[in-house]
Design goal:
Strand content: under 5%
Order of helices and strands: HHHHHHH
Number of helices: 7
Helix content: 55-70%
Largest sheet: none
């Protein structure tokens, strides 16, 4: 972070109160470029652009003729396109699920199929991250809380995830992406106002 440095001249350094007051008023200055210096602009931009994209895709897919496709009909080309779109989630503030669902809808997939594919696509990524964490600190975790607690947490997380996915797909089928698009726009505004 870029920090405003105030140099106190030698004649004032003898006054501890002044030095303390100057130091207490020193604060980070947000950069206009963002990225590495803690600026919120990349996140605000991603939230706003993602929200607008979701609203546009939702309107576009509502006008299109509903396709009757299943996950088994996904071609290698489509899988590569959705996988490549997933890389956009590396941008701070971009949702991996949002990007993959939008990519599926742009390819003409039904909303339920796009959502199911998005969740299935998360399994290798989350599985690899879980395996990495288990290798790095699994022994410590087991020693601290025990195998029973880990197993209970794993099973309850699977059940809650399955229910959440089922509920999300049902909601998406009825409401579409528009509520999520408006949510992202509102969140972008809130982050921007909080950062000012």
């Amino acid at each position: 972070k870029v920090v405003l440095k105030v140099t106190v001249r030698a004649r004032y350094q003898s006054t501890p109160r002044l030095v303390s007051e100057v130091n207490s008023r020193t604060r980070p200055i947000p950069s206009r470029t963002g990225w590495a210096d803690g600026s919120a602009w990349p996140v605000v931009a991603a939230l706003a652009l993602g929200g607008l994209l979701m609203l546009w895709v939702d309107r576009r897919s509502a006008k299109a003729t509903p396709a009757t496709r299943t996950l088994e009909s996904v071609t290698v080309r489509e899988a590569l396109l959705v996988g490549a779109a997933q890389c956009l989630a590396l941008w701070p503030g971009t949702s991996r699920a949002m990007v993959t669902i939008v990519a599926g809808l742009l390819l003409g997939w039904p909303a339920t199929m796009a959502a199911e594919y998005s969740f299935l696509l998360a399994l290798p990524t989350l599985g690899a991250a879980t395996a990495f964490d288990a290798v790095q600190g699994g022994a410590t975790l087991l020693a601290d809380i025990g195998a029973g607690s880990v197993a209970c947490g794993f099973v309850s997380a699977m059940v809650v995830a399955a229910l959440a996915i089922r509920g999300f797909i049902a909601y998406l089928t009825v409401r579409g992406l528009a509520p999520f698009g408006w949510y992202r726009l509102a969140l972008a505004a809130a982050v921007w106002l909080a950062w000012r």
